[in-house]
Amino acid sequence: PPEELLRSSADFLQRLSGILRTSLRFRLDENGQAMVFPYHRPGPGSESRNRRELAPEVIGSVVMLEIDNRLCLQSPENDHCFPDAQSAADYLGALSAVERLDFPASPSPRGAGGGEPLELPEPSVPLLPLLAASAVFLLVILVLGVMVARRKREHSTLWFPEGFALHKDVAAGHKGRREPVGQDALGMKNMAKSESLMGEVATDWMDTECPEAKRLKVEEPGVGAEDTVDCRQWTQHHLVAADIRVAPAMALTPPQGDVDADGMDVNVRGPDGFTPLMLASFCGGALEPMPTEEDEAEDTSASIISDLICQGAQLGARTDRTGETALHLAARYARADAAKRLLDAGADTNAQDHSGRTPLHTAVTADAQGVFQILIRNRSTDLDARMADGSTALILAARLAVEGMVEELIASHADVNAVDELGKSALHWAAAVNNVEATLALLKNGANKDMQDSKEETPLFLAAREGSYEAAKLLLDHFANREITDHLDRLPRDVAQERLHQDIVRLLDQPSGPRSPHGPHGLGPLLCPPGAFLPGLKVAQSGGKKSRRPPG
């Protein structure tokens, strides 16, 4: 207010003069009074309100000042002097903008003969309406987001397993199923009366029925096509072969397209190309409780296989996805009884699936000891058959550390020095996985302990790289060469040091003992006494591997 400003006029002029570095004084009117006027709060309709109100609110003062810069111009350094009132007002406005003006003021330039009117500050924006508008805007965005999310939701029918999609052939008015013949009609009730009584309600779903699956317009699934839908369905032959027995009231016999052909064909294909013989080769259970005697269950499954073979089932039929035969499936599921029936019927023991595996490979990977014993005793089995990656059954047995299979294959005269596509032998894999029993059996039966693979790595090098301490020690005990390098010119000790296998580093740093005089088979007498019997030991003068009858 003007009264307070006039009471502290000296301090006001002194502080402002220090800021402008010049002399200031109040401008006087005609009566000699200081030109200090009240400053009222601005607002809409302020002129009409001033006429109505007697005492408007005073929030400040409007001060007219005169600048006397004669002393500033007389000083040597007069570059900071203000030439006019506009420059001084701009300087004060700049200080106020950067918040370096230590007292409130709204400067405005005015000359001696008058000046421009004082610019009033803009009224502040009300905060409450702004918050309300923001809340409404956010609510609208949220509602729009929910509506867009609902539009993106997709609806589809309920999924059912392959082969159990029912079609409403009866409601369509045509007959798509054959009449039950012989014992197929036992336990079935006449549905003609119930259909006539239901009338229009027949189109509604019942609790015990399954909804109709939409027909997909897809091409016939080819071999190895995993993304296509297999439209083939299980037939009665498949259910009998799998020994699946259900109650007549719950029997959901799937519809059959060509009833006469599929119903009598023992080689009918189901989903993934499974034939009834394939299902009988690995399925033995049913929905009913299993028999108490295990032998009785095996006899039942074996008799089903024999019946299918007598009816003309193809032994060499393959699945679409993996290319496995019934003998492959019997080996994979450890069905020794099924494998024996199939071999007695003349199944091919060397048939390969899509990955090149024979039933012997499958038996080794599945640890099916019974099927494995049957296959290695069959003279038509090729023990050295290779998979697509070149692995033999002996390589798989050494790599998977299957108990007893390495010794059995060696005793059956399998090639101990056969290599895969990487040039690795069974001894390479046994040393890499620290299979001590297989390593010892291979070393005792003439395996090349210093053989190099495609990367010039020896079994000792792989044992040092993988941290197989026991296998490395066994190789060193059999005088494996520790100075053979790989294709990067690294020694076994170097790779063990890189992998931080300090125990193997210390083992390789130990001096090698003197070599014992070799026996007739290249092994020391301390490791293999002369009178010891080593099954399957290969003698160079004997002509190599024992002859086997060619596969037939």
UniProtKB/TrEMBL annotation:
One of its GO terms (cellular component) is nucleus. Residues 1-42 form the Notch NOD domain. CDD domains: JMTM_Notch3. InterPro entries: Ankyrin_rpt, Ankyrin_rpt-contain_sf, Notch_3, Notch_NOD_dom, Notch_NODP_dom. Keywords: ANK repeat, Membrane, Repeat, Transmembrane, Transmembrane helix. The chain crosses the membrane at residues 127-149. GO terms for biological process: cell differentiation; Notch signaling pathway; regulation of DNA-templated transcription. ANK repeats lie at residues 322-354, 389-421, 422-454, 455-487. GO terms for molecular function: signaling receptor activity. It comes from the Eukaryota. This is Notch-like protein 3.
